[in-house]
Design goal:
- The chain is an alpha+beta fold.
- The protein has 4 domains: 85 residues, no CATH class; 175 residues, Nucleotidyltransferase, domain 5 (2-Layer Sandwich); 58 residues; 61 residues, no CATH class.
- It is built from 18 helices and 15 strands.
- Strands 1, 6, 7, 8, 9 and 10 form a 6-stranded mixed β-sheet that branches.
- The relative contact order is 0.13.
Length: 509
């Protein structure tokens, strides 16, 4: 017969725990506790409370910061998970001194930190600079698209949301009409339909309330962009894993130890529009660090999402040695031109964007003679000069149009035009040689295509991309739990604060 050891799980056992012994030097939690207790000025939180003469004692800001930032570092981004960990996890207990805040207190603390996070972020950067972790040789900027606490199903322009409200109300009326026409429905069907009608009415009222208090948001191109009823500041964004409702977390870091120097989130604003505010904040930071001339000695890299004539013109005034790629940067690289893999992947992306339609002839496929001001199409037909001078964005163009009889009978029509020509042939325009000016974009192309330019730009990938990988993948901070630009911006800076404190863990003793 088998003989087993007794089960003593019903017995009580008293285990002495030294909370201070749980925080081991060299760990993230040790660096976090050391910085908050010895280096950060938390007096800015004092004005939150007026309870010295009456009312319950408040949770210490140092305790709240410790458990929240440590929770974020472990992927506990919701206040409920952090509150639960304070009651079950020994490391959380040690950081909090066995204090167990309610999840509503944790959520309220984070939501109110919009005026406090910037000073804390700067203080940590000063510690990083004192420890020699901030380099001033090269900076890189990039964005990371992160989901917001809002559903993309509640997005749309004012016109689209108006139609959606009308659709919901019609569906509600159809349920009511069916009930009036059929008196013999059983009780279960009636209850189900009433619940469905109530749900439709609530959704319609929610949209109606939003429409009564909001107007169309206008994008950078002057056209209405979609708003979200749940979080109007967020936006629909296309990522490699599909479309999300979220924010674009912008960050600037150095290439020495990948310390994040500037962090801010943006909703419907395009990446191009975020570059100037980010650089201006970077300038203010170095003023606080006591090295205002740092930008005049450093290089700066950014990908094609930040490329525009306006941005390049602005960067020329900053003193930074700038390297910003354009959308055709890789296609001009001899290594990519000879790569079959690159061309195959490019064609796959093009087919996906165009939904399988063949590539159409571009302006480069037409032969333009600037001397005679004539143009010949890929089929060998001459185009007639429709206009000698068309002003587009301050530049002068010559526009050519194909003869309608030629375009209708052309064997290459499907490669040249999306639809069968009805009233006019293919149109194409060329910049007049006399009007060609050397733009900042042209200068950047020459600079970044040089061997030195490609070598400097190649450093961008290793400088900025691991930062986002550490935040979203390693640490699990891949979603915002708050709503609104200010609150989400606070949470993004706290995510970046976790990254910077982790860099300090081996420097503090």
């Amino acid at each position: 017969m088998a003989n087993y050891k007794p089960d003593l799980s019903c017995q009580s056992k008293f285990i002495p725990i030294d909370f201070s012994a749980q925080i081991i030097p060299g760990t993230f939690e040790y660096a976090l506790a050391h910085i908050i207790d010895n280096h950060l000025d938390l007096s800015g939180f004092d004005h939150w409370f007026d309870n010295d003469k009456g009312g319950a004692a408040a949770y210490s800001p140092s305790v709240m910061l410790k458990i929240i930032l440590f929770g974020y570092s472990r992927g506990y981004i919701t206040s409920r998970r952090i509150a639960n960990a304070c009651a079950t996890n020994i490391t959380f207990m040690s950081l909090s001194g066995d204090v167990q805040p309610h999840y509503t207190s944790i959520a309220s603390f984070v939501a109110r930190m919009k005026d406090q996070i910037e000073p804390l972020f700067t203080q940590v950067l000063m510690i990083c600079d004192k420890e020699g972790l901030i380099g001033r040789h090269m900076f890189a900027i990039d964005g990371c698209k992160i989901k917001s606490n809002a559903s993309k199903e509640w997005s749309g322009t004012i016109e689209e949301l108006t139609r959606k409200e009308a659709t919901l109300r019609r569906a509600s009326q159809r349920i009511l009409a069916r009930h009036q026409a059929q008196d013999g429905l059983n009780e279960d069907e009636i209850n189900h339909d009433l619940k469905q009608k109530d749900k439709l009415d609530k959704c319609a009222k929610k949209i109606q309330h939003f429409l009564a208090n909001n107007k169309d948001k206008i994008g950078s191109r002057g056209k209405p962009v979609k708003s979200n009823i749940t979080d109007p500041d967020s936006a629909k964004m296309t990522t490699s894993k599909g479309t999300i409702q979220g924010y674009n977390g912008i960050a600037i870091n150095d290439d020495k130890h990948q310390i994040i120097l500037q962090a801010q989130t943006w909703g419907s604003v395009g990446e191009q529009q975020t570059l100037k505010p980010a650089i201006e904040q970077l300038k203010k930071l170095f003023d606080k660090l006591g090295t205002p001339d740092s930008l005049h000695q450093a290089k700066f890299t950014a990908d094609s999402g930040f490329h525009s004539e306006v941005n390049l013109e602005y960067m020329a005034t900053t003193g930074l040695d700038t390297y910003i790629a354009d959308t055709q940067f890789r296609s001009r690289n001899p290594l990519f031109k000879e790569s079959e893999t690159y061309h195959t992947e490019q064609e796959k992306r093009r087919l996906k964007r165009s939904k399988g339609r063949p590539r159409l002839f571009s302006r480069e496929d037409f032969h333009f003679n600037s001397t005679n001001n004539t143009c010949i199409c890929p089929a060998g037909k001459s185009l007639w000069l429709q206009s000698k001078c068309i002003d587009v964005g301050g530049k002068k163009y010559s526009r050519f149009t194909g003869y309608l009889k030629d375009c209708r009978a052309c064997p290459l029509q499907k490669q040249c035009m999306r639809n069968t020509p009805q009233s006019t042939g293919r149109q194409v325009q060329f910049l007049q040689q006399s009007e060609q000016k050397v733009s900042y974009s042209d200068k950047m192309k020459v600079k970044i295509d040089s061997p030195m330019g490609r070598r400097q730009y190649s450093k961008r990938l290793g400088a900025i991309e691991p930062v986002f990988g550490n935040i979203t993948v390693n640490k699990g901070m891949n979603k915002f739990t708050l709503r609104g630009q200010e609150k989400v911006n606070t949470q993004w800076q706290m995510y970046c604060l976790v990254h910077n404190i982790e860099k300090l863990r081996n420097s503090l003793h």
